[in-house]
Fold these 3 entries.
Entry 1:
Amino acid sequence: METHTHNWLERTELLLGSEKLELLRNAHVLVVGLGGVGAYAAEMIARAGVGRMTVADADTVNATNINRQLVALHSTVGRPKAEVLAERLRDINPGIGLTVVDKYIKDEETYILLDAARYDYVVDAIDTLSPKLALIAASLERGLPLVSSMGAGAKTDPTKLEIADISKTHHCPLAHMLRKRLHKIGIRRGFRAVFSPEPMREGAIILCEEQNKKSNVGTISYIPALFGIGCASVVIRDLIGELEG
């Protein structure tokens, strides 16, 4: 069976040129959190031709993920998200150097993961504040370029999406809480955030007591995907030297 692996990046090379495509082939990108945002970010990064990736998440696919998560199908319910995504990424690029970490990245695991390899970029798609803060702080401490997704839930307007330094985020509750925590440890700027200032819809959040989360937030199919694509665009454009600002 013909695999077509010889020319699958032909259109990307036509757009970017061979030298910039080679920069992507030689890059290693870490994506932490493979839910509604992170899986889309990872897939877009892989489809752009990044040669090495590490993806991390210990969660399994739940039926409630099907409305918005790339890895979630009725046929994948109960399977590890990292495993399902890894199959997709290897099918997109059979030559990808892929490391799969089936663990929740928090506490000591954050430092172990960041010190396990030399990364050219980190994508933070964690939706819980404390491990998110730890990943950001530890990445910046190591001088690693990073892009972070803010809250994608309870929103419906794709035209409100913005990408800016964390210091310039506004009207986003998660970004506000994160900035306050970062200020306490001396971090005020230094990484880009994908966010939306669209007001959160009333009644779209309910409290819960599930593992690693304290609330469930209503979501629509396309908003988390756009946040992930925004994160991927930052990574790709920065790696090839085309990100302004």
Entry 2:
Amino acid sequence: MQLVVPSLTLLPLVLNIAHVLVSGQVLEKSRSVWVEQGLVRGKIYNIDGRHIQIFRGIPYAEPPLGNLRFAKPVKKARWHQELSAVEYGPPCIQFMDFHRYDKFSADNMRRQSEDCLYLNVFSPYDHEDESKTFPIIVWIHGGSFLAGSADTGIDMELSFLNTKIGDKIEGNYGIWDQVMALQWIQSNIKQFGGDPSRVTLMGESAGGAACSLLALSPKTEGLAQQAIIMSGSVTAGWAIHRHGTPSWSLENLVSYLKCEKTITGAEYAADVVGDEHTPDELAQKKCNYQNEIVPCLGDDQTSSQQLSCIRKSLNFSSSLFRKALAFELGVSKMVVDGDLVPLSGAELVRQYARIPIMTGVARKEWAHKKPQFYNLHRKSSLTAEEAGESVFRIVEGSFHDTSPVKLSNSTLHLVANASFVRYIDDPSNTYETSRVVSALQTMEADIEFVAPCQREIDGYIYNNVTVYAYSFDYIPKSPIYEEEKKTFSLFGHTPVTITRKDQTLQDRKLEAFHGLDHAFIFSKGYSSNFEIRPFTTDDENLAKILTNMITNFAKNGDPSTRRFTWPMFSGNKTVEHISINLPPKIIQGELHWPQPKFWNVEADLISRHIAAGDFDTSSDPDADLTNEERVQLSAYRRAWWALWLLVAVLAIVIWGIVIYAVVSKGTSPRNKPYDNIVITR
């Protein structure tokens, strides 16, 4: 099989070699093939007795420079000499430094460039029959649409592709890059042994959301036949912008470039600058950490003039500037453009779902978030008010993004109160920090991953499209070590490697978290700097099960293995998904039920029908209610009117008694004080 990633990697179906590092490859010979643009030369390796051909750094679009900046990609022109595809192309400009000290890709990350639209192809090679073709997996990396590249992992029989990081200013350009890469695959992948009629999209996190969109967009029809969507969904609030002005809009970016707005408040400055930059280096920066201010941005310019200026003159060479922008503006989201992204949220899925998918989430996506993420690390216990404030911040920051309209604070507080009761409240009225943080992790994961995944599943089921759903629940018995680089003035600002064991919250077991499944597909860690040590026999067995499920789905459209039958998720019979664990097992009901019901039904109902002013009162507010909800609402209304009627009757009776008492007293003979007075003349 082949796999492709935007940053794209193509991988003819041999995912079970995923744990073989490049250092274990034996070079045998070179091989050249013809593509639309010309001749390209790669290498053939012997990996565990299998011949694998590897082509790195094949350009699929013109460099997005000059007038091609912030524009749809342009197909790569022909080249007239043999192209050497033996080295990775440069990664795209990174807006976060997730992979700065990456074990596998740190060296290549230093080559960041806007000239980055390349793909890599890894596929089986049979010298006796070069006409053999294999299914293709197109791998789309994650990274919040702000970071990542095709080489942030180990080599295997895949194809990875790079796309521009960020979809803004304001036209989904990174996603358009992926569309062009898929078109290139259709035209050329057969030359590498790939079958263009068996293309499986596969992505995780932001890559999962992009994969989710590509499986639905009318612009990609025929470019892929199925999709594997891991911990990401186009229905998530962080994936597609829904209301207000996008933070990465042209107007907003220009205001920062001209220093009309200042990047990063004091609370972010330390994170942006870090310890690796000396005061002298910072003193040389212009406003907002820029190396130089864009000279052609003036006053009273039209948006087209501003865009033309930015295309020609914007300098992205300052990593501090890029990182500060990311801290200030947040996750770069896709936007509804009526073209590539015709709709947002569940409406997009219900209208355009067409190809089979395998999709799921980790048991507790944000289980590795530390108390520092919630600014609670300095407290051993909280008050109910402090816990409630943390809940509100998540509702305001995560749930609000899923709404098609801007919600009032009163509505958000109402949703937060309901969320507090569901996740935090406790009869003992004690709020230990570890318990609250654990609940916040679950709540945030439910909003951002679990509920969106279930929404997407529901949309596919509505269209009678095949869905295989899972929860990744396996947690290794060995410690998970996190390695990072820190700089200290004591060592002259030289990076020092720090390794620490991933710690769990007090009295709580670690649960499968966001991206942990990578350890069992691509490497032995959550990322190249997270590692499970030692990687046990159980870990190896789980890796075999998971990669077999993925490859079987890519080959046959069914992830079942010889020993385990994976049932389809169907709305017409008992709802089932599977737990990926040792051993895997079938689970009745929706993913992580009942949490998706709360966010997709109850919280949504509150935000649409209870918050005054947040919906169109000219329409029937009860139109979307179920029969059971209508009956309950009708009963509440009858009880309400009965209560008011009782109050009115009691008021009339009381007033009657008061009036009668007053009149009776006024007509009594005892109340005539002058009856005993006799007047004589």
Entry 3:
Amino acid sequence: MIRLLSAVVLLGALSGCEPAILDSAGPVAASDRHIMLDAFAIMLAIVVPVIAATLAFAWWFRAGNSRAKYRPDWAYSGQLELLVWSVPTLAVIFLGGIAWIGSHAADPATPIGSDPPLRVEVVSLDWKWLFIYPDQGVASVNHLVVPAGRAVSLRLTSATVMNSFFVPQLGSQIYTMAGMTTRLNWRADRTGRYRGLSANYSGSGFPGMALAVDAVTPDQFARWIQGAKAGAQILDGAAYAGLLRPSRNVAPYTYRAVAPGLFDAIVRDAGTRTAQTAVDGRGN
């Protein structure tokens, strides 16, 4: 009884968890959710019959059931072997097919729609995220603002160690690596604030490496850009050198201007480093 009550209490605590990928806010996240739910249903086709059969066998072959036949010499059944091996084999085939088709359909490098997307350049640092809007000429730290209903094309890299960019409700976790670029395309279909995070350990400041993604109306996005341009900070070489220094739990802020070609320079300069180690808080 104590175990049952403990389980009920733990289940109640789960009500405070965010639905994340189950509450998809865009086509990519919706595709990821469908893959996960389809895979879950296929695995239930094995789990549920096995549990049911276990309970049925335990009940039928109980000591008090005189109708159950005792067969100590039984060793083989072709029909049972066919059942035992065919169901898992079919499950693996279906799971593989769903993963193959779904992962190719949701290729992060594939553009969404035919309209020009919003271009954003993303840089992972210790321990914060830098977002550069090359067409608008502004940048932000730990805060990504996008217009809802418009495709977003992200070009990502790392200025330090390998990291991972993930916004569960918008979909497709993708890695960032120094000296390399990766691409991610997604779209927010409704306005709202979505939580983003680093999904790859990158040192002692990793737990606080969170970001906020605000999907707003086109008018609100235009006003945000104008507000960023009215700020005081400029992201030039000196400002970037300061940004490159490790820092934790950084509050979001913006830059009103960005040095031309900064993202490509980050990719090029980070690629020349030969030692990439995560800072562990002990000076290593």
